[in-house]
Amino acid sequence: MNNKKAAIVTGASRGIGRKTAELFAHNGYNVLINYNHSQTEAEELQKQLKQEGSQTEIFRANVGIYEEARQMVDFCLAKFGTVDILVNNAAISQAKLFTDITPAEWQEMMQVILNGVFNCTQNAVREMIHQKRGKIINLSSIWGITGASCEVHYSTAKAGIIGFTKALAKELGPSNIQVNCVAPGVIQTDMLSGYTEDDLEELRQETPVKRLGTTEDVAQLVLFLASEKANYITGQVISPNGGFLV
Which CATH class is domain 6-238? Predict the structure, then answer.
C-alpha cells in the first residue's frame, strides 16, 4: 500500500475504459482494471502498465451482479487501502427495432448498464463517505440525452445514468464527493464495428469538427473530472461530441 489515490475503472480492458485506465496509471494513480469477458486484453494492459512502473491490479466482475461489484471494491481496498475514484464505464450495446427487443435483452441492457452503475457506486460510496472525499464519473452517451432510433433499450439505460448522476450529486455533495457524467458522441471503438465506411463518413460529415472522437478525447475529460481541479464541478453532464449534439 502507498499514499497514491486509487481508481476503479469498470470495463477497462477495451475502448474508452482501457484508455482511461492508461491515463490514470500514467498520472500516478493506482488503478484497478475491471473486466468481465476480455481477460486476455486486461492481462495485457496490466502487464504493459506494470512495465511502465504503474501499480495496477485486474479483477473480473460482472458489474451487473451486486455481490461481484462488492467483491471488486473490497479487493481494491485490500490492495490499495482506498477507493478514491470510480469510473462507471462498463456497458454493452445492441441495435435492434424496438418491436424486436426481447424481454431478456431489455433486462440484460438494464442489468449491465444501469444496475452496474448502482452496484459499483453503492459499494464504493460507503468507503468514500468514510473518507469524506471521492469522485464518481459515470459514462452515459449522447443517445442518453437525445435518444437513438433502433437503440431504445440502450438509450433508456444511458438516460437513467444521467438522472442517477444528478440526484446522487445532490445527496453526496455535503460529504465532499463529486458525481459527474460524461456523455460521449460518436467515438472510434468496437461499438462502431457494425458500421460501413460510408456510414462512418456520413457521421464525420455530420460532426462540425469533421472527425470522429477518439478514446483519448473522452479519457482526458474523465481524468480531469477525477482531479482536484474539478472539485467545484458536480452533477454535470459533459458531452465530448465534436459539436454533433449542441
Answer: alpha beta
pTM confidence score: 0.96
Spatial CA neighbour of 26 closest among 59, 10, 49: 49
| Residues 200-244: tens digit of each pLDDT | 999 999 999 999 999 999 999 999 999 999 999 999 999 999 999
Catalytic annotation, residues:
154
Question: pLDDT digits over 33-64, tens only?
Answer: 999 999 999 999 999 999 999 999 999 999 99
Query: Does residue 243 contact residue 208 with C-beta atoms inside 8 Å?
Result: yes
